[in-house]
Amino acid sequence: MKLSKYEQETIILYNQAEPTASVYSHDSKLLEKLARLSENYPQQIQPDGPNRYIVPKGCVLVREPYSEERRAVARERAKSGGYTPPKHSKKEL
Q1: Predicted TM-score (pTM) of this structure
Q2: E strand or H helix at 64, and its extent?
Q3: Tens-place pLDDT, residues 6-64
Q4: CA gyration radius for the chain?
Q5: Higher-confidence residue: 53 or 75?
Q6: What are phi and psi of 13, to 5 degrees?
Q7: Residues in Cβ contact with 11 at an 8 Å cutoff, skipping those fewer than 6 apart
């Protein structure tokens, strides 16, 4: 059964007693990233069933949003450094 975009949730669970968090997701990009990290860091990031990974709690990050001013400075720094964003195929968009 195909899930709608609304139903494709990501759930992160952790408690204060354990050093790890459980990440359950239907986000294909996040799952690809977790799989890649699991290959590179098998002792720290481990698959734990379909669409689920165990990660160190330090990998879970909540930060303040970027201000428009900060985005503009980063944009100018990237332009002056010659950075060009990757081109996406129509399939990815």
Answers
A1: 0.72
A2: none
A3: 999 999 999 999 999 999 999 999 999 999 999 999 999 999 999 999 999 999 999 88
A4: 17
A5: 53
A6: -120, 135
A7: 23, 24, 25
Q: Is 84 helix (H, G, I), strand (E, B) or coil?
A: coil
The answer to whether 62 and 12 are in contact (CB under 8 A) is: no
Instruction: Please tell me the distance from the alpha carbon of residue 82 to that of residue 3, in angstroms, as a whole number.
Output: 40
- Nearest alpha-carbon partner for 46 in 19, 76, 16: 19
Q: Could you tell me which residues come within 8 angstroms of residue 7 by beta carbon, excluding any fewer than 6 positions away?
A: 26
Per-state percent for the chain, helix, strand, coil, to nearest 5: 30, 20, 50
Helix (H, G, I), strand (E, B) or coil at 10: strand
Measured CA to CA, the distance from residue 73 to residue 82 in angstroms comes to 14
Cα–Cα distance measured from residue 55 to residue 58, given in angstroms and rounded to the nearest whole number? 8
C-beta separation of 10 from 21 below 8 A: no
